[in-house]
Amino acid sequence: MTTDRPVNTPTKSESNLGGRVRNLLIIIVAIALSVALFLGLRTQTNSVSLTQLDQVSTPLELAVSNNKPSLVEFYADWCTVCQKMAPDMAQLQQQYADKLNFVMLNVDNNKWLPEMLKYRVDGIPHFVFLGKEGEAIAESLGDIPRSVMASNLEALVTGSTLPYAYAKASSQVSKFSDPVSTNGNRDDPRSHSRQVVN
Questions:
Q1: Is residue 108 within 8 Å of residue 179, measured between CB atoms?
Q2: Is 82 a catalytic residue?
Q3: Is-catalytic flag, 79?
Q4: Do 102 and 163 share a domain, yes or no?
Q5: Domain check: are 177 and 110 in the same one?
Q6: Which site among 15, 126, 127, 187 is 20 to 30 Å from 103 CA-CA?
Q7: Mean pLDDT, the chain cut into blocks of 10 residues (198 residues total)
């Protein structure tokens, strides 16, 4: 008896099996890519916020009295440079948490107006390095690279001269736009702005 089909032609059930295997592989690859995409997006959005940094920061009253050096950051939630630096600041805060205080002062809060005047804050982020007695040692302004900030913090902890003392950032500084009422106070640092330009 002779068959009408060629010798190497698959039967209908063999063709269905090949199609099912191919479909199963496509489904597995799609699931793997979806999981990878989900995890990738999740890690990108799991960034540190300024609010989170503020919540774990040392209160100023404690920082000036606990006999540890301090880094005071004047910031605002709307400050793009402050937001950009937040992940680096969070890492530095974890690294130096037992050696120094990290203090966050929001310039939009009128409570900090005396400190803003005292330290002549006219752009943010504005960093003030305080010694163990609460005395101002140095200041920095603007987008400070993590390595520069780490060098200053290391020197602050060891009591050495800060290598980048009074360093003015050559990059961006967020301008103030008077987000809160200053009741006509012309000395309020939020009523004017300065951008450091190299």
A1: yes
A2: yes
A3: yes
A4: yes
A5: yes
A6: 187
A7: 57 69 86 76 64 92 94 95 94 94 96 94 94 92 93 94 66 48 46 38
